From TrEMBL:
Family according to the record: Belongs to the CoA-transferase III family.
Descriptive protein name: CoA transferase
Entries under Gene3D superfamilies matching the protein: Crotonobetainyl-coa:carnitine coa-transferase, domain 1, formyl-coa transferase, domain 3
Native source species: Alexandrium catenella
Lineage: Eukaryota, Sar, Alveolata, Dinophyceae, Gonyaulacales
Stored SUPFAM superfamilies: CoA-transferase family III (CaiB/BaiF)
A GO MF term: catalytic activity
Superkingdom, taxonomy of origin: Eukaryota
Any matching Pfam family: CoA_transf_3
Length: 369
């Protein structure tokens, strides 16, 4: 929640409450973009489909991000991250091929890849509107994004009819770039021959000059043919000294290399803090490290990284500043249950109202009912 929802304002409105609709319509009229990730058709049933919203704001970019896309036999089904990791082929690829146990990435790959794809196309739609003056409906999906981001694996497998099926970790026998354990138990990753001119510099830096003339490794074709031998030699050499020793040697000759870090190491590594890729924030529970903004703008700097809002924290601000509602109108929404789902067993006080000045007014009025 703290990393994904920061920088947003949070408002509670019950879309099934008629009393909420004047505020909803004002928000649609004000907005550049409406984003939703319900199952296909949910907002249509609520009266918030694209055609409904287009009548209120013709310039609106209406953006739907479903699990499986708007068409086909799976269009109306719901999804979560691991469902699309599995269906997109990512889990099979991570597990080493179709004959092996699938492996799922733990950092919400489909959720975040789907969001990146979604954000890119929203930006493209906004740019198109600058030229046309018209809004449009944009439809993306987790599944589509995950397949697209795996093009480097999917396309060769589709072309050849074969998929890697050795059960080994990705890149284990890749001569161009891979990861190796070192003498102190730590790991590094390097690209010893991604480009041919790296190879001689690499071999001399790590003391493996004999590989330059070895019939099994003297050119790229031989190295691929003898990839197991290639890895055996490099792995044995790297285990002779600590990771930082080898990184220093390879940096000196400009061969791409880096440490394989865990999250604790990332939190203290100077490269991340220097670029604000990792930063510190504070919420009601204390200070903690979080990810920063992975971009730098020369003319419009990003605002300082903050924390996620409480549910409904900005309800009053948004209703007042964007919807133009006064205190009495906002109080009326709360009393009509329009800012929180209406519960059959009685009134549920909205979370946000607890910190606002009219709480006592609502409580007093309710006590008289």
């Amino acid at each position: 929640n703290e990393s994904i929802n920061r920088g947003k304002r949070s408002i509670e409105l019950d879309l099934k409450s008629p009393a909420a609709w004047p505020a909803v319509e004002r928000l649609i009229k004000w907005a550049d973009v409406l984003v939703e990730n319900y199952k296909v058709g949910v907002l249509d049933r609520l009266g918030l489909g694209y055609e409904d919203c287009k009548k209120i704001n013709p310039r609106l970019i209406y953006c739907a991000n479903s699990g499986f896309g708007p068409e086909g036999p799976w269009a109306l089904r719901g999804s979560f991250d691991v469902v699309c990791q599995g269906m997109s082929g990512a889990a099979v690829a991570q597990g080493g091929g179709p004959a092996h146990t699938p492996r799922f990435c733990e950092w919400g790959t489909a959720d975040q890849v789907g969001a990146l794809n979604f954000a890119f196309h929203i930006a493209a739609a906004l740019f198109a509107r600058e030229k046309s003056g018209q809004g449009q409906k944009l439809e993306c999906s987790q599944l589509g994004a995950m397949v697209q981001f795996q093009a480097i694996g999917f396309v060769p497998a589709s072309f050849s009819g074969e998929q890697r099926n050795d059960g080994r970790p990705t890149n284990a026998d890749n001569i161009l770039l891979s990861y190796y354990p070192c003498g102190d138990g730590k790991w590094l990753t390097c690209a010893p021959c991604m480009e041919e001119h790296f190879w001689a510099r690499f071999c001399k830096a790590v003391g493996l000059e004999e590989l330059l003339t070895d019939e099994r490794t003297k050119n790229q074709g031989r190295r691929w043919k003898n990839s197991a031998y290639f890895r055996e030699r490099l792995e044995a050499r790297f285990k002779e000294m600590p990771r930082d020793h080898w990184i220093e040697k390879l940096v000196e000759v400009d061969v791409p290399v880096g440490p394989v870090l865990d999250y604790a190491e990332i939190a203290t590594h100077p490269q991340f803090s220097a670029n604000d890729y990792v930063t510190e924030v504070e919420n009601q529970y204390g200070r903690f490290k979080t990810v920063g903004v992975a971009a730098r703008y020369s003319g419009t700097p990003a605002p300082p990284v903050g924390v996620a809002a409480d549910l409904g924290e900005h309800t009053e601000d948004v209703l007042r500043d964007i919807c133009g509602m006064g205190p009495s109108d906002i109080r009326a929404l709360a009393e009509a249950h329009a800012t929180t789902p209406n519960r059959k067993n009685g009134y549920k006080e909205p979370h946000w109202i607890k910190v606002h000045k009219w709480k006592s007014h609502v409580a007093e009025k309710r006590s008289r009912l």
